[in-house]
Automatic annotation (TrEMBL):
It comes from the Bacteria. Gene3D superfamilies: Ribonuclease H-like superfamily/Ribonuclease H. PANTHER family: DNA POLYMERASE III SUBUNIT EPSILON, EXONUCLEASE. This is DNA polymerase-3 subunit epsilon. Pfam families: RNase_T. SMART domains: EXOIII. GO terms for biological process: DNA metabolic process.
């Protein structure tokens, strides 16, 4: 089965607009720009989620540690597109929505990959779901922390860690559950927030 779609993710992005898009990447090595999978979770105003993932040929060797972590290897991406091909296809969609990431690694990886291939950077607003989780569940500090693995247990989330599509969905769930816990909806995450800005 195709590793990028082993969890039933969409193989083409859905039609928008969306309230926000959660983004997660997996990398081939310690090099931030060595993206080998991108996962996206599209969240509607009603809170429904659609998840998409795509494998990417990082055009560099895989580190054994990384492959063991996410299960993606040179063989897995043998016929996969390169980052520029995938990025260009997703650029308008990503650049017109608020983006959510769990930690800041994903934004750094996307920025590094864009710099590597001389591609335009995303100008979207990024929300770090770790910070949102810290505000919603402060008691977790020192009690496992606010990483996805601990939040999976604490919030009873169902996802397969270290798959980009699954982790993107988990980050989206963290946002929605935090809003539910605090009773406060993050006002900057709203459909067409950036689409409505004057050109």
């Amino acid at each position: 089965m195709n590793t990028s779609n082993r969890f039933g993710h969409l193989q083409t992005p859905p039609e928008g607009p969306f309230r926000f898009i959660a983004l997660d990447v997996e990398t081939a090595s310690r090099s931030a720009g060595s993206i080998c999978q991108i996962g996206l979770c599209f969240v509607s105003d009603a809170g429904t989620m659609q998840t998409y993932s795509v494998l990417i040929d990082p055009e560099e060797p895989f580190a054994p540690f990384n492959s063991e972590l996410h299960g993606i290897s040179a063989e897995t991406v043998r016929e996969a597109p390169t980052f520029p091909t995938v990025y260009v296809a997703l650029f308008d969609l990503l650049n017109s929505h608020s983006l959510v990431q769990h930690s800041t690694f994903d934004e750094k990886a996307m920025t590094a990959a864009c710099a590597r291939y001389d591609l335009p950077m995303l100008t979207s607003h990024w929300t770090n779901s770790v910070k949102v989780a810290r505000q919603a569940w402060p008691a977790l500090k020192g009690a496992g922390g606010h990483g996805l693995a601990n939040l999976k247990t604490y919030l009873d989330l169902a996802f397969h860690h270290h798959d980009a599509g699954e982790d993107a969905r988990a980050a989206a769930c963290v946002i929605l559950k935090a809003e539910e816990t605090t009773g406060v909806r993050l006002s900057h995450l709203k459909t067409k927030r950036q689409l409505d800005l004057p050109i």
